Amino acid sequence: MTLEELKSIEGISLEGSVLNCYEDKAIPESGVLSLPEGLEAIGDEAFARSERLQEIRLPKSLKKIGWAAFVRCEKLRLIELNEGLEILNDYAFLGCSALEDFHLPSSLKTIGNGALSGLGCALSLAEGNPYFLVQEGVLFNQEKTKLLACPDIKETYTTPEGVFEVAWSAFRGCRKLKRLSFTEGVRVLGEDACYDCTNLEEVALADSLEELGWLAFSRCKALKKITIPAKIKSLGWALFSDCRSLREVNLSEGLQTIGLATFAHCHSLEEITLPKSLLEVGGGAFSDCPKLLSMNCLATTPPRVEDFDFRGMLIVPKGSEEQYAQSKPWSFCSEIKA
Fold first, then answer.
1. pTM for the complete prediction?
2. Sign of the four-CA dihedral 76, 77, 82, 85
3. 19 vs 41, 46, 219, 250, CA distance in Å?
4. Nearest 5 degrees, angle CA 245-CA 188-CA 110?
5. Are 100 and 121 spatial neighbours (Cβ–Cβ below 8 Å)?
6. Per-residue pLDDT at 309
7. Is 83 part of any domain?
Protein backbone atom coordinates (compact mmCIF):
# COMPACT_ATOMS: atom_id res chain seq x y z
CA MET A 1 0.00 0.00 0.00
CA THR A 2 1.22 3.52 -0.88
CA LEU A 3 0.47 6.79 0.89
CA GLU A 4 -1.94 7.73 -1.90
CA GLU A 5 -3.80 4.46 -1.52
CA LEU A 6 -3.93 4.96 2.25
CA LYS A 7 -5.35 8.45 1.78
CA SER A 8 -8.24 7.12 -0.28
CA ILE A 9 -9.56 4.83 2.49
CA GLU A 10 -12.63 6.06 4.38
CA GLY A 11 -11.90 6.78 8.04
CA ILE A 12 -8.30 7.84 7.47
CA SER A 13 -6.96 11.39 7.59
CA LEU A 14 -3.56 11.88 5.98
CA GLU A 15 -1.86 15.23 5.46
CA GLY A 16 1.33 14.92 3.45
CA SER A 17 3.41 12.35 5.28
CA VAL A 18 1.55 12.77 8.60
CA LEU A 19 -1.20 10.32 9.61
CA ASN A 20 -3.68 12.32 11.68
CA CYS A 21 -6.47 9.81 12.17
CA TYR A 22 -7.05 6.11 11.59
CA GLU A 23 -10.56 5.14 12.67
CA ASP A 24 -11.45 1.63 13.76
CA LYS A 25 -13.71 1.11 10.75
CA ALA A 26 -10.62 1.38 8.52
CA ILE A 27 -8.71 -1.32 10.45
CA PRO A 28 -9.14 -4.91 9.12
CA GLU A 29 -11.23 -7.23 11.26
CA SER A 30 -8.07 -9.22 12.00
CA GLY A 31 -6.75 -6.18 13.88
CA VAL A 32 -3.44 -6.43 11.98
CA LEU A 33 -2.19 -3.34 10.18
CA SER A 34 0.85 -2.34 8.10
CA LEU A 35 1.59 1.32 7.43
CA PRO A 36 3.25 2.30 4.12
CA GLU A 37 6.77 3.59 3.53
CA GLY A 38 7.01 7.34 3.19
CA LEU A 39 4.98 7.96 6.33
CA GLU A 40 7.05 10.19 8.65
CA ALA A 41 4.73 10.90 11.56
CA ILE A 42 1.71 9.48 13.37
CA GLY A 43 -0.28 12.43 14.68
CA ASP A 44 -1.83 13.18 18.05
CA GLU A 45 -4.48 10.62 19.08
CA ALA A 46 -4.38 8.99 15.63
CA PHE A 47 -5.25 5.52 17.00
CA ALA A 48 -6.43 6.62 20.46
CA ARG A 49 -8.66 4.12 22.27
CA SER A 50 -8.89 1.79 19.31
CA GLU A 51 -11.00 -1.26 20.12
CA ARG A 52 -9.80 -3.21 17.09
CA LEU A 53 -6.05 -2.68 16.71
CA GLN A 54 -4.02 -5.73 17.81
CA GLU A 55 -0.82 -5.63 15.78
CA ILE A 56 0.84 -2.87 13.78
CA ARG A 57 3.92 -2.73 11.57
CA LEU A 58 5.58 0.65 11.24
CA PRO A 59 7.55 1.81 8.16
CA LYS A 60 11.28 2.51 8.25
CA SER A 61 10.54 6.13 7.28
CA LEU A 62 8.65 6.90 10.53
CA LYS A 63 10.36 9.51 12.71
CA LYS A 64 7.71 10.66 15.18
CA ILE A 65 4.77 9.25 17.15
CA GLY A 66 2.52 12.03 18.45
CA TRP A 67 0.79 12.90 21.70
CA ALA A 68 -1.47 10.06 22.91
CA ALA A 69 -1.25 8.45 19.46
CA PHE A 70 -1.99 4.95 20.79
CA VAL A 71 -3.39 5.87 24.20
CA ARG A 72 -5.44 3.05 25.78
CA CYS A 73 -5.31 0.73 22.77
CA GLU A 74 -6.05 -2.09 25.18
CA LYS A 75 -6.04 -4.88 22.57
CA LEU A 76 -2.71 -3.89 21.04
CA ARG A 77 -0.33 -6.84 21.55
CA LEU A 78 2.48 -6.37 19.05
CA ILE A 79 4.32 -3.35 17.71
CA GLU A 80 7.88 -3.05 16.47
CA LEU A 81 9.35 0.42 16.69
CA ASN A 82 11.48 1.04 13.62
CA GLU A 83 15.09 2.14 13.52
CA GLY A 84 14.91 5.77 12.46
CA LEU A 85 12.18 6.64 14.95
CA GLU A 86 13.34 9.64 17.00
CA ILE A 87 10.40 10.95 19.03
CA LEU A 88 7.72 9.44 21.27
CA ASN A 89 5.54 12.28 22.50
CA ASP A 90 3.68 12.48 25.82
CA TYR A 91 1.26 9.61 26.56
CA ALA A 92 1.99 7.96 23.19
CA PHE A 93 1.34 4.42 24.51
CA LEU A 94 -0.33 5.19 27.86
CA GLY A 95 -2.44 2.27 29.06
CA CYS A 96 -1.46 -0.23 26.34
CA SER A 97 -1.60 -2.99 28.91
CA ALA A 98 -1.79 -5.95 26.48
CA LEU A 99 1.58 -5.35 24.81
CA GLU A 100 3.76 -8.47 24.92
CA ASP A 101 7.07 -6.82 24.02
CA PHE A 102 8.33 -3.26 23.70
CA HIS A 103 11.75 -2.67 22.16
CA LEU A 104 13.11 0.86 21.89
CA PRO A 105 15.35 1.57 18.85
CA SER A 106 18.86 2.99 19.02
CA SER A 107 17.69 6.03 17.02
CA LEU A 108 15.23 7.20 19.70
CA LYS A 109 16.12 10.64 21.10
CA THR A 110 13.01 11.87 22.92
CA ILE A 111 10.49 10.08 25.14
CA GLY A 112 7.70 12.29 26.49
CA ASN A 113 6.02 12.23 29.87
CA GLY A 114 3.80 9.21 30.35
CA ALA A 115 4.62 7.85 26.90
CA LEU A 116 5.16 4.35 28.30
CA SER A 117 2.94 4.45 31.39
CA GLY A 118 0.92 1.36 32.21
CA LEU A 119 2.57 -0.96 29.70
CA GLY A 120 2.07 -4.61 30.52
CA CYS A 121 5.56 -5.77 29.49
CA ALA A 122 9.20 -5.09 30.31
CA LEU A 123 11.09 -2.55 28.21
CA SER A 124 14.20 -3.35 26.18
CA LEU A 125 16.60 -1.07 24.33
CA ALA A 126 18.76 -1.51 21.24
CA GLU A 127 22.52 -1.30 21.74
CA GLY A 128 24.12 2.00 20.87
CA ASN A 129 21.38 4.34 22.06
CA PRO A 130 23.23 7.31 23.62
CA TYR A 131 20.24 8.80 25.43
CA PHE A 132 18.64 6.04 27.49
CA LEU A 133 19.34 3.01 29.64
CA VAL A 134 17.13 0.03 30.51
CA GLN A 135 17.72 -2.00 33.67
CA GLU A 136 15.42 -4.88 34.68
CA GLY A 137 12.80 -3.64 32.24
CA VAL A 138 12.77 -0.08 33.67
CA LEU A 139 13.79 2.99 31.65
CA PHE A 140 16.32 5.62 32.84
CA ASN A 141 18.30 8.42 31.25
CA GLN A 142 21.78 7.40 30.10
CA GLU A 143 23.38 8.69 33.32
CA LYS A 144 20.85 6.72 35.39
CA THR A 145 20.05 9.79 37.48
CA LYS A 146 16.43 10.02 36.35
CA LEU A 147 13.89 7.18 36.34
CA LEU A 148 11.71 7.75 33.27
CA ALA A 149 9.27 4.83 33.10
CA CYS A 150 8.47 1.66 34.98
CA PRO A 151 5.99 -0.64 33.21
CA ASP A 152 3.34 -2.58 35.10
CA ILE A 153 5.47 -5.67 35.74
CA LYS A 154 6.49 -5.47 39.43
CA GLU A 155 4.81 -5.96 42.80
CA THR A 156 7.74 -4.51 44.78
CA TYR A 157 10.25 -1.94 43.60
CA THR A 158 13.08 0.13 45.10
CA THR A 159 14.69 2.90 43.07
CA PRO A 160 18.40 2.25 42.40
CA GLU A 161 21.09 4.27 44.14
CA GLY A 162 22.13 7.34 42.17
CA VAL A 163 18.62 8.26 41.03
CA PHE A 164 17.69 11.77 42.15
CA GLU A 165 14.56 12.36 40.04
CA VAL A 166 11.49 10.30 39.19
CA ALA A 167 9.80 11.57 36.06
CA TRP A 168 6.25 12.70 35.48
CA SER A 169 3.98 9.61 35.22
CA ALA A 170 6.90 7.20 35.74
CA PHE A 171 4.83 4.63 37.68
CA ARG A 172 1.40 5.73 36.48
CA GLY A 173 -1.06 2.88 36.11
CA CYS A 174 1.20 0.24 37.70
CA ARG A 175 -1.67 -1.77 39.14
CA LYS A 176 0.47 -4.78 40.08
CA LEU A 177 2.66 -2.60 42.30
CA LYS A 178 2.09 -3.08 46.06
CA ARG A 179 5.26 -1.76 47.71
CA LEU A 180 7.44 1.13 46.54
CA SER A 181 10.58 2.56 48.19
CA PHE A 182 12.56 5.62 47.15
CA THR A 183 16.25 5.40 48.07
CA GLU A 184 18.10 8.21 49.79
CA GLY A 185 19.19 10.74 47.19
CA VAL A 186 15.87 11.03 45.37
CA ARG A 187 14.95 14.72 45.47
CA VAL A 188 12.08 15.10 42.99
CA LEU A 189 8.97 13.02 42.41
CA GLY A 190 7.21 14.29 39.29
CA GLU A 191 3.57 15.04 38.64
CA ASP A 192 1.21 12.02 38.68
CA ALA A 193 4.28 9.82 39.18
CA CYS A 194 2.26 7.09 40.91
CA TYR A 195 -1.19 8.11 39.75
CA ASP A 196 -3.74 5.27 39.58
CA CYS A 197 -1.49 2.64 41.22
CA THR A 198 -4.67 1.19 42.66
CA ASN A 199 -3.06 -1.69 44.61
CA LEU A 200 -0.14 0.25 46.06
CA GLU A 201 -0.27 -0.38 49.83
CA GLU A 202 3.13 0.82 51.13
CA VAL A 203 5.29 3.79 50.16
CA ALA A 204 8.59 4.79 51.76
CA LEU A 205 9.63 8.32 50.80
CA ALA A 206 13.32 9.23 51.09
CA ASP A 207 14.35 11.88 53.64
CA SER A 208 16.17 13.60 50.77
CA LEU A 209 12.91 14.28 48.93
CA GLU A 210 12.31 17.99 48.32
CA GLU A 211 9.49 18.09 45.77
CA LEU A 212 6.26 16.14 45.33
CA GLY A 213 4.41 16.85 42.09
CA TRP A 214 0.68 17.33 41.63
CA LEU A 215 -1.42 14.16 41.66
CA ALA A 216 1.66 12.07 42.48
CA PHE A 217 -0.32 9.54 44.55
CA SER A 218 -3.86 10.32 43.46
CA ARG A 219 -6.11 7.26 43.08
CA CYS A 220 -3.74 5.02 45.07
CA LYS A 221 -6.81 3.45 46.63
CA ALA A 222 -5.00 0.81 48.73
CA LEU A 223 -2.48 3.18 50.34
CA LYS A 224 -2.98 3.20 54.12
CA LYS A 225 -0.17 5.33 55.54
CA ILE A 226 2.20 8.08 54.40
CA THR A 227 4.97 10.06 56.12
CA ILE A 228 6.01 13.33 54.49
CA PRO A 229 9.77 14.07 54.76
CA ALA A 230 10.94 17.25 56.50
CA LYS A 231 12.37 18.89 53.35
CA ILE A 232 8.96 19.06 51.69
CA LYS A 233 7.61 22.62 51.96
CA SER A 234 4.46 22.23 49.88
CA LEU A 235 1.94 19.50 49.08
CA GLY A 236 0.61 20.01 45.57
CA TRP A 237 -2.81 19.93 43.99
CA ALA A 238 -4.76 16.69 44.60
CA LEU A 239 -1.56 14.96 45.72
CA PHE A 240 -3.36 12.26 47.74
CA SER A 241 -6.88 12.73 46.39
CA ASP A 242 -9.05 9.63 46.17
CA CYS A 243 -6.70 7.59 48.40
CA ARG A 244 -9.71 5.93 49.94
CA SER A 245 -7.84 3.64 52.37
CA LEU A 246 -5.49 6.34 53.70
CA ARG A 247 -5.82 6.36 57.50
CA GLU A 248 -2.54 7.77 58.80
CA VAL A 249 -0.79 10.91 57.55
CA ASN A 250 2.37 12.20 59.24
CA LEU A 251 3.26 15.77 58.28
CA SER A 252 6.73 17.00 59.26
CA GLU A 253 7.63 20.34 60.75
CA GLY A 254 8.73 22.62 57.92
CA LEU A 255 5.67 22.07 55.75
CA GLN A 256 4.21 25.46 54.79
CA THR A 257 1.45 24.77 52.26
CA ILE A 258 -1.24 22.14 51.77
CA GLY A 259 -2.59 22.64 48.27
CA LEU A 260 -5.96 22.47 46.58
CA ALA A 261 -7.79 19.16 47.10
CA THR A 262 -4.63 17.55 48.54
CA PHE A 263 -6.55 15.02 50.66
CA ALA A 264 -9.94 15.20 48.92
CA HIS A 265 -11.98 11.97 48.96
CA CYS A 266 -9.76 10.28 51.56
CA HIS A 267 -12.69 8.37 53.01
CA SER A 268 -10.72 6.55 55.75
CA LEU A 269 -8.86 9.54 57.20
CA GLU A 270 -10.02 10.06 60.80
CA GLU A 271 -7.57 12.59 62.25
CA ILE A 272 -4.57 14.65 61.25
CA THR A 273 -2.02 16.95 62.90
CA LEU A 274 -1.01 20.08 61.01
CA PRO A 275 2.54 21.28 61.84
CA LYS A 276 3.44 24.57 63.54
CA SER A 277 5.15 25.74 60.34
CA LEU A 278 1.96 25.59 58.24
CA LEU A 279 1.01 28.92 56.61
CA GLU A 280 -1.69 28.06 54.08
CA VAL A 281 -4.36 25.45 53.33
CA GLY A 282 -5.80 25.32 49.81
CA GLY A 283 -9.45 25.09 48.89
CA GLY A 284 -11.06 21.69 49.28
CA ALA A 285 -7.91 20.23 50.84
CA PHE A 286 -10.04 17.93 53.03
CA SER A 287 -13.27 17.82 51.02
CA ASP A 288 -15.29 14.59 51.19
CA CYS A 289 -13.38 13.16 54.16
CA PRO A 290 -16.45 11.88 56.05
CA LYS A 291 -14.52 10.22 58.90
CA LEU A 292 -12.27 13.21 59.63
CA LEU A 293 -13.75 14.38 62.92
CA SER A 294 -10.66 15.74 64.69
CA MET A 295 -7.84 18.02 63.55
CA ASN A 296 -4.87 19.21 65.60
CA CYS A 297 -3.30 22.43 64.33
CA LEU A 298 0.00 23.31 66.03
CA ALA A 299 0.33 26.78 64.45
CA THR A 300 -0.23 29.57 66.99
CA THR A 301 -1.43 31.89 64.19
CA PRO A 302 -4.29 30.48 62.07
CA PRO A 303 -3.01 29.49 58.61
CA ARG A 304 -4.64 31.15 55.60
CA VAL A 305 -7.48 29.04 54.23
CA GLU A 306 -9.25 29.52 50.88
CA ASP A 307 -12.16 27.17 51.49
CA PHE A 308 -12.56 24.68 54.29
CA ASP A 309 -14.89 21.69 54.41
CA PHE A 310 -13.78 20.49 57.85
CA ARG A 311 -16.45 21.00 60.51
CA GLY A 312 -15.20 18.71 63.28
CA MET A 313 -13.28 19.37 66.49
CA LEU A 314 -10.21 21.59 66.15
CA ILE A 315 -7.40 21.37 68.70
CA VAL A 316 -5.06 24.39 68.79
CA PRO A 317 -2.17 25.64 70.97
CA LYS A 318 -3.14 26.99 74.37
CA GLY A 319 -3.85 30.69 74.14
CA SER A 320 -4.74 30.56 70.42
CA GLU A 321 -8.37 29.53 70.83
CA GLU A 322 -9.76 33.04 70.39
CA GLN A 323 -7.70 33.74 67.26
CA TYR A 324 -9.06 30.63 65.58
CA ALA A 325 -12.60 31.35 66.78
CA GLN A 326 -12.46 34.77 65.08
CA SER A 327 -10.75 33.57 61.90
CA LYS A 328 -12.96 32.28 59.07
CA PRO A 329 -13.39 29.55 58.02
CA TRP A 330 -11.65 28.02 61.08
CA SER A 331 -14.46 29.50 63.14
CA PHE A 332 -16.92 27.11 61.42
CA CYS A 333 -15.44 24.12 63.28
CA SER A 334 -17.94 22.51 65.67
CA GLU A 335 -15.56 22.91 68.61
CA ILE A 336 -12.26 24.76 69.12
CA LYS A 337 -10.18 23.88 72.14
CA ALA A 338 -6.59 23.67 73.40
1. 0.94
2. positive
3. 6, 7, 34, 50
4. 110
5. yes
6. 85
7. yes
